[in-house]
């Protein structure tokens, strides 16, 4: 595959490149011999300076009329949309995600900004009532500086889902991307920042210590975190010490439940295969446990394996025929390979899926996609979030039992129900413990800009997307003149409990 030379990109704050404390270098996960580029990092003082610049910018940005802020976000949407062709391949090379999906990520960022710009004015607007209960104005106000801490698997989307609503509501933002995908996201966010007043949006790089500095900073008023449960506990503890509110979007172990009437035709099977293996399975809302009626196990396995043969092709993410790239890190590759190895050693059958393009599999962090059959629910391959290109097939005899097993997890991000009868699928969906349930699809296919996104239980708290995702970045200020006081009534009336 053709590629250009290494890029050098800097952290920026207050509209300027930061001098930098060191560098994070990123190697192509499809070809370890290729250095894709490097970003400059900051130390704790640099992180603090970025927050202070964002705090200074907040004092003016909060007073810009919401319609003007949204108009500026529309200009930013055009700017980031224009980066698609240039940054799609860069993201593919640093992350291992197939290039078409990477271009899609840039386009989606643009769409997300437009959607927020259209909805925010109605949500930010004051609400005033004046009636026989009194006069009440509820203001919807920004918090101040928002720290956005994001993982690597969809670095731009997961940044934009925080940045767009935060800025539309009058906050300013400092983003800390993951060291595993720092390059394209910085360029894309710089194109947005350059369309806005200085300091409204900054991006700084570093590891855990930079993230901790941001989360614990006295001028950071809200934290938006997407990542794994281990880091989430650290972030939550640091934020709690500063009493800073946090939105958390964490991992999932999503069940996909196929009812006894679910069609296993080619289109449906291709949807579930993609629902599992997009971004090599490294997606929080990938289908990670497949529940199928025992009586239809062979039929499902045959249909799934042949759909995978048609649509999964492992190889270099810049190859347009490839649909599954390498994994993003050797640690995650080993973790998933060990899960599969453990299942095999317990007697499971491992079905290798799809085809392999002309690529040096030993020269990158490649892992062949697999379907694992003959498993028990308490094996790690079922009980843990795999976050990689493998999925277990879990058989059930009774639907109530399947629902109970699907719900028997500390995680509850997404889920799906598959049936020829949509009403029946919705009824089953009502019984699932999840923030989202998709009908006859899973993963990206089930997303909607109007559907709140987020999990229950240890999959997180708070929401992204939709009106709920905008409201996360507003706090209320109630201004109230009670009727009894306005009328000059006696102290006894003014001091009465309300509503009686
Ligand atoms: P991670 O938790 O390791 O890292 C996330 C971010 O936190 C990175 O930017 C990292 O540098 C930073 N960080 C690390 N230690 C920190 C600390 N002590 N304080 C502050 N920041 C710190 O996650 P990851 O490996 O990058 O991503 C994989 C996980 O993210 C998976 O569990 C996946 O399911 C989850 N995820 C969830 C969603 C969602 O929307 N629910 C989306 C994508 C990924």
The name of the CATH superfamily of the largest domain reads Aldehyde Dehydrogenase, Chain A, domain 1
User: What's the number of helices?
Assistant: 17
Which small-molecule ligands are present, each listed once?
A: nicotinamide-adenine-dinucleotide
Q: Provide the number of structural domains.
A: 2
Quick one: biggest sheet? 7 strands, mixed
From the spread of the alpha carbons, the general shape counts as globular
The whole-number mean of residue pLDDT values reads 96
Question: Kindly, what is the distance between the CA atoms of the first and last residues, rounded to a whole number of angstroms?
Answer: 74 Å
The CATH topology of the largest domain corresponds to Aldehyde Dehydrogenase, Chain A, domain 1
CATH class of the largest domain reads Alpha Beta
- Sheet-strand content, in percent, reads 15-25%
**What is the level-2 CATH architecture name of the largest domain?**
3-Layer(aba) Sandwich
Number of strand elements = 25
The structure class reads alpha/beta
Give unreliable regions as ranges: none
Cα radius of gyration in angstroms: 24 Å
Fraction in helix: 25-40%
Description:
It is a single chain. This protein is of the alpha/beta class and 500 residues long. Helix content is 39%, strand content 23%. It folds into two domains: 264 residues, Aldehyde Dehydrogenase, Chain A, domain 1 (3-Layer(aba) Sandwich); 193 residues, Aldehyde Dehydrogenase, Chain A, domain 2 (3-Layer(aba) Sandwich), CATH 3.40.309.10. The strands form seven sheets. It has a seven-stranded mixed beta sheet with strand order 16-18-19-14-13-21-22, with helices on both faces. The radius of gyration is 24 Å and the shape is globular. Bound molecules: nicotinamide-adenine-dinucleotide. The site of nicotinamide-adenine-dinucleotide has 29 residues, from helix 7 and helix 8.
């Amino acid at each position: 595959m053709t590629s250009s030379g290494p890029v050098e990109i800097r952290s920026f704050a207050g509209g300027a490149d930061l001098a930098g404390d060191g560098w994070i270098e990123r190697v192509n996960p499809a070809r370890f011999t290729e250095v894709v580029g490097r970003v400059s990092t900051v130390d704790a003082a640099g992180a603090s300076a970025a927050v202070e610049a964002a705090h200074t910018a907040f004092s003016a940005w909060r007073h810009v009329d919401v319609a003007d802020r949204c108009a500026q976000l529309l200009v930013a949407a055009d700017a980031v949309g224009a980066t698609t062709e240039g940054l799609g391949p860069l993201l593919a090379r640093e992350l291992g995600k197939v290039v078409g999906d990477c271009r899609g990520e840039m386009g989606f960022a643009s769409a997300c900004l437009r959607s927020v710009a259209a909805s925010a004015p109605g949500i930010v607007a004051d609400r005033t009532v004046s009636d026989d209960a009194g006069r009440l104005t509820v203001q919807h106000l920004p918090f101040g500086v928002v720290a956005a801490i994001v993982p690597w698997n969809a670095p731009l989307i997961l940044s934009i889902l925080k940045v767009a609503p935060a800025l539309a509501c009058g906050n300013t933002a400092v983003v800390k991307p993951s060291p595993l995908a720092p390059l394209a996201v910085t360029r894309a966010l710089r194109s947005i920042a350059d369309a806005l007043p200085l300091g409204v949006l900054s991006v700084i790089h570093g590891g855990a210590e930079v993230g901790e500095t941001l989360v614990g900073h006295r001028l950071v008023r809200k934290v938006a975190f997407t990542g794994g449960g281990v880091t989430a506990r650290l972030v939550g503890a640091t934020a709690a010490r500063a009493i800073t509110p946090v939105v958390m979007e964490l991992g999932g172990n999503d069940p996909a439940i196929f009812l006894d009437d679910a069609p296993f035709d080619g289109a449906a099977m291709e949807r579930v295969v993609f629902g599992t293996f997009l971004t090599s399975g490294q997606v929080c809302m990938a289908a990670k446990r497949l529940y199928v009626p025992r009586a239809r196990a062979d039929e499902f396995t045959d249909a799934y394996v042949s759909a995978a043969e048609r649509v999964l092709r492992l190889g270099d993410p810049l190859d347009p025929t490839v649909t599954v790239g390498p994994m993003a890190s050797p640690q995650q590759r080993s973790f998933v390979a060990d899960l599969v190895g453990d299942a095999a050693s317990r007697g499971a059958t491992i079905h290798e899926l799809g085809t392999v393009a002309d690529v040096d599999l030993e020269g990158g962090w490649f892992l062949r996609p697999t379907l694992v059959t003959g498993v028990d629910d308490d094996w790690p391959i079922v009980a843990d979030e795999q976050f990689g290109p493998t999925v277990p097939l879990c058989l059930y005899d009774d639907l109530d039992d399947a629902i109970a097993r699907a719900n028997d997890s500390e995680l509850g991000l997404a889920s799906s129900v598959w049936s020829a009868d949509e009403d029946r699928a919705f009824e089953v969906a009502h019984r699932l413990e999840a923030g989202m349930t998709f009908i006859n699809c899973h993963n990206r296919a089930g997303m909607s800009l109007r559907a709140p996104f987020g999990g229950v239980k240890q999959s997180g708290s708070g929401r992204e997307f939709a009106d709920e995702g905008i409201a996360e970045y507003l706090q209320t200020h109630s201004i109230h003149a009670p009727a009894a006081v306005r009328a000059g009534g006696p102290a006894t009336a003014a001091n009465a409990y309300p509503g009686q």
